[in-house]
């Protein structure tokens, strides 16, 4: 059997804490499986952390401190590792890109905007301008780079299966320029069809439905229990308590039933993309006053041109 290759703790902060975790675990006489037990994390996940390939999430740091008797060491150092791995995402979000890569399935619900994995650069710039108008331009560009890095997931041979759901309002009611929305919708159509993914739209005729408030991302794994990621304007957190994850699962399944079928959803998006493209080419918005603008919005909602 070849000798085990230990991580070089001097190469990075994640490698340093990964090596320290392995040292403390072995000193306690625990296997990877024993340390992972009760953490809702898989053995491979823990092994990658020990090799310095992934940062330790806060929930696992607390679990390790408790099992290894390390007096909060790993919890206190989580932020150090996060800063070392910062790639344009808020600190509270840094676990998500790694989890997305490890997932075998991703199921997303976002009631008001398109999920980050589906966003174009211009769509995100416009979104940032409206929801965070005081955000410095360099910070916006940094976050765009982070999203583009996440979107490399679509080109991976072993990418997770994907299922996304949004409301019709996210498609039709937007302050963004028609050319931006046309490009965004065309991007979603290309992505969903080329990857054989599923995308649904909850119609405006169903204003009340399961998961009424807030976004949710359900992530399934081959060797670990599923997790749910939820997010607000300034924070987000991983839900791993089995009964709560199961409730998210049930409500997401009910939401599928409320949404338009996949083919009808893509047809709606295709029609909306044509409408936006026509507006962009003919300058409809620039020539319309307030009343006419509202009439145009009503026509969009009815799927008319």
UniProtKB/TrEMBL annotation:
Record InterPro entries: Cro/C1-type_HTH, DUF5753, Lambda_DNA-bd_dom_sf
Region Disordered: start-end pairs: 280-305
Positions of the HTH cro/C1-type domain: 21-55
Matches recorded under Pfam families: DUF5753, HTH_31
Name used for this protein in its record: Scr1 family TA system antitoxin-like transcriptional regulator
Organism taxonomic ancestry: Bacteria, Bacillati, Actinomycetota, Actinomycetes, Kitasatosporales
């Amino acid at each position: 059997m070849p000798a085990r290759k230990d991580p070089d703790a001097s190469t990075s902060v994640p490698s340093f804490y990964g090596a320290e975790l392995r040292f403390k675990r072995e000193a306690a006489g625990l296997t990877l499986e024993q340390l992972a037990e009760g953490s809702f994390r898989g053995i491979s996940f823990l092994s990658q952390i020990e090799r310095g390939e992934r940062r330790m999430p806060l929930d696992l740091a607390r679990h390790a401190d408790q099992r290894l008797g390390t007096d909060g060491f790993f919890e206190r150092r989580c932020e150090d590792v996060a800063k070392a791995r910062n790639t344009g995402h808020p600190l509270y979000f840094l676990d998500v890109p790694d989890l997305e890569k490890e997932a075998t399935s991703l199921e997303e619900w976002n009631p008001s905007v398109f999920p980050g994995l589906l966003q174009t650069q211009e769509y995100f710039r416009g979104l940032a301008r409206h929801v965070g108008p005081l955000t410095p331009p360099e910070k916006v560009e940094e976050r765009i780079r982070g999203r583009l890095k996440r979107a490399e997931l679509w080109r991976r041979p072993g990418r997770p299966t994907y299922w996304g759901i949004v409301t019709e309002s996210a498609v039709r009611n937007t302050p963004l320029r028609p050319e931006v929305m046309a490009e965004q919708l065309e991007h979603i159509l290309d992505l969903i069809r080329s990857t054989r993914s599923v995308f649904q739209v909850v119609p405006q005729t169903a204003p009340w439905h399961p998961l009424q408030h807030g976004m949710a991302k359900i992530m399934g794994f081959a060797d670990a229990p599923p997790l749910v990621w939820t997010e607000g304007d300034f924070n987000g957190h991983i839900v791993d308590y089995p009964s709560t994850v199961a409730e998210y699962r049930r409500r997401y399944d009910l939401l599928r039933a409320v949404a338009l079928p996949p083919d009808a959803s893509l047809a709606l998006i295709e029609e909306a993309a044509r409408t936006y493209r026509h507006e962009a080419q003919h300058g409809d918005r620039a020539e319309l006053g307030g009343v006419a603008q509202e009439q145009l919005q009503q026509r969009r909602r009815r799927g008319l041109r």
